[in-house]
Write a structure and sequence with these properties.
Order of helices and strands of chain A: HEHEHEHEEHEHEHEHEEHEEHEEHE
Structural class of chain A: alpha/beta
Oligomer: heterodimer
Shape of chain B: globular
Number of domains of chain B: 1
Radius of gyration of chain A: 23 Å
Distance between the termini of chain A: 70 Å
Largest sheet of chain B: none
Strand content of chain B: under 5%
Shape of chain A: elongated
CATH class of chain B: Mainly Alpha
Helix content of chain B: over 70%
Number of strands of chain B: 0
Radius of gyration of chain B: 20 Å
Chain lengths: ~375, ~300
Amino acid sequence: MIKLNRRHFIGGAAAAASLPMLASRATAADPLKVGYIYVGPINDGGWNTAHEAGRQEMLKQFGDRVVSQYVENVAEGPDAERVLRDLYNQGNRLLYATSFGFMDSAVKVAQAFPDATVEMCTGFKPSSNNNLSNYNIRFHQARSVFGTMAAMLSKTGVGAYLATYPVPEVVSGINSFTLAARKVNPNFKTKVIWLNTWYDPAKEADGARALIDQGADVMTQHTDSPAAVQVCESKGVPTFGQGSDQSQFGPTMCKSSSLDLWGAFYTTRTGAVLDGTWKPEDTYWGMKEKALDTAPFVNVPDDVKAAAEKVKAGWIDGSYDVYAGPIKAQDGTVHGAEGSTLSDGDILGMNWLVEGVDGAMPS
Amino acid sequence: MSIDFLISVIITVVGASTPILFAGLGELVTEKSGVLNLGVEGMMLVGAIAGFATVDMTGNPWLAVVVAAAAGAAVSMIFAVLTLSLRANQVATGLALTIFGTGLSTLIGHGYTGRPIKPFTTLFPAALANDPIGRLFFSYSPLVYFSFIMVALVAWFLSRTRGGLILRAVGENDLSAHSIGYSVIGVRYGAVAFGGAMAGIGGAAFPLVLTPLWAEGLTGGRGWIAIALVVFAGWRPGRLLIGAYFFGLLGTLELYAKASGTVFTALLPSEGWAALPYVATVIALAIISASKAGGGNAPACLSKPFTPAA
């Protein structure tokens, strides 16, 4: 008779607790477990809201075949790796990491678990296990629509861009906004503030106020919350929201918002994993693939609306490209050439600002 | 650098400093009675969601301020019972309160995101409030003016009334106060409740004045600044006012410097500007601690549980 003391009890309990781990063996009937990590809350009204909407759309498509869970407010950095590993250990074999700062963690996890599939949003590093892809949306297409509208709406010719971190996605957003605006008004300038955060409503609001006080009379943002939209509404400054339709926060001043439509992408890639046809290939969709759209234009004169629609149509049928031709950078160097346009690689790795941007790149 | 621009900066600074001023005042009174309540951030967040929810449901910002104060005070009572009646460690309980308050506000707030509310509008007529020079004095929301009144009230209460004297006595030497016959625990309960109420109002200032929406963690760590500010102020309300505006100025300066373009970013890297308010607070604390006058100003019984002699 084994004596029932604390040591034996703990040992028995540990053995009993580990039994479930021996049980699971994925069979064809088992649903695919998909894990998502978000950098902010799903109800931020911007970036993360859009990803969650995409996830829900994907779930509707696959019903019982997919089981999904998400973790929100995951800090970019080492903790992201912990969360991804935790998701893997809970059985998730397809992982979506939805923010740039998760890149190193996603690569590490992809290297560590060859049987997992990892999709990294707005990243650019590969994994030696061939189980990592990067996916992105051509956000600069929407930025160029807004830049066109901004130049037509601005009276002072000074616009503002509430930026976050100096990563290529943000830099190409600023450049695209400025270049498109300068096609309308060659002297248009863009003032930039680098907030060093994706999401801090009070700081975003103060940043917006600072930019407006500096003379900007039209704004756009790369931050995730609608705080800046509200400041613009209260000060009568036209602005453009990002990620999801933020017009409810600025009924008269938020002229449009970029709409990130991740649903089609998540459905496609999850479907590929389910079929067994998934291959590591980077996805870079835009308006043509219906991954990006703009919220309906409100409160703008008809000619502004027409110009914006023209730019959108141009992206879809290929007749408009904001990065075509030679582009002059802030420091004078010329990128691109007459008759050609910047390659995807150039855009995804962009680390220089165009002429007309008032604000240096932080190192 | 025009006058107009300067006035705009001042207005933004005032807005940014008001929440920490409220929270700091509450914490000052709490600490003067000998209780160290580190849960300011949690109480501010609870006040913020309470205020936001009230405006969302009733549209009345004044009621929202009252509800926010009540919510902050209610949450602080959890802390009070644990530390004053059950004599738990004040530092640990305060930290637990922060975590609890943050989580509670997130839980309650989950259904409230994506809903804008109407913030406070200024009390003064539009002619004064929008006038280029007049707006420096008249364009603020009522909470800002209320914060100045509270600073004066607290200063007067602490130094000129009997109640304030009792509060300070309880904080300096609780055993003597007890032997004279004052209820040490009772006074401390009241001080903690006041601190909670003020922190609640400070938190409500975020959705009611600064950013009329709800987002998780809306206060962004300002509660911790308020705690540091009380030490920075040497437990004196007048110095607290200066400190709150000093911190608000530094935080705002960072954004205006960045917006002005390349000149300022050459002076200091972007991250340096972001760290400036915190660095400056640390430097100020060091200077104050070094000088004899300000250094030894802490209430003598701060964070010590009250154990009456058997």
